[in-house]
Amino acid sequence: QVLLVDSGGGVVQPGGSLRLSCAASGFTFSTYGMHWVRQAPGKGLEWVAFIRYDGNKKLYADSVKGRFTISRDNSNNMLYVQMDSLRVEDTAVYYCAKEVGPTYFDFWGQGTLVTVSS
Amino acid sequence: SYVLTQPPSVSVAPGKTARITCGGNNIGSKSAHWYQQKPGQAPVLVIYSDSDRPSGIPERFSGSNSGNTATLTISRVEAGDEADYFCQVWDTYSDHVIFGGGTKLTVL
Q: For B90, which of A11, A84, A103, B65 could close a Cys bridge (C-beta 3.0–4.6 Å)?
């Protein structure tokens, strides 16, 4: 069965950095695009970033472009997002999500909470 | 940028039909997808490609998409359907995933 396990969240000061991970299993990871989606406390879902199955195409929401970097390790079935220059407004639960075409999400991780606060 | 508009809340009595709308400019030309999210849980896909149901989702859940509105319909609503529901599309112009603001379904 498909399983996505998010990790790496925590408390960080504004301007700091954090790297989130998503461990995937139960499917052929290297053949699927993957996304990060976040949800601020009490708010709706916000798409963050996408990476193609081979890692050769990456897309970002305007709110994180230039600060976040999505990557993947197909050898180890891992998805990452490096978050730099963090802002208070980046505080959210971050979910990794498996894409199926045309671009919707059939499986989600359990989420990991990132809190940006001084 | 492309915007999806959902009503903040919808209320329905048990056994009745709930309809949750998702408005967007010519959304009927895109594929619309719907997610259910219960408190403290990750979202779950309930409708994809306008009207298809993933395995395990009850037939009570259905979807349609035409013109400027996509609609999620839940028939014979049960207490367990109480949740937040989000619509989602892929905007080919911006190459961005777009979510609606979400609708809280309350079962009276």
A: A103
Question: What is the tens place of the pLDDT at every residue in A78-90?
Answer: 999 999 999 999 9
Residues B95, A61: C-beta atoms closer than 8 Å? no
- Using alpha carbons, list the distances in angstroms from residue B33 to A71, A102, B70, B90: 26, 10, 9, 9
A15: alpha, beta or left? (left if phi > 0; alpha if psi -120 to 50): left
Q: A with B: how many residue pairs have Cβ under 8 Å apart?
A: 56
The pLDDT of residue A102 is 66
Q: Which of A104, A110, A112, A113 is best to mutate for the B interface (most B CBs within 10 A)?
A: A104
Minimal C-alpha gap between B41 and chain A (Å): 7
Task: Return d(Cα B5, Cα A61) in angstroms, integer.
Answer: 19
Q: Show the tokens assigned to B47.
A: 């409708």
Please check whether residue B48 touches A, CB under 8 A: yes
pLDDT of residue A118: 92
**Can you give the pLDDT at residue B29?**
96
Cis peptide before A41 (omega within 30 of 0): no
Residues of B with Cβ-Cβ distance to A59 under 8 angstroms: 95-96
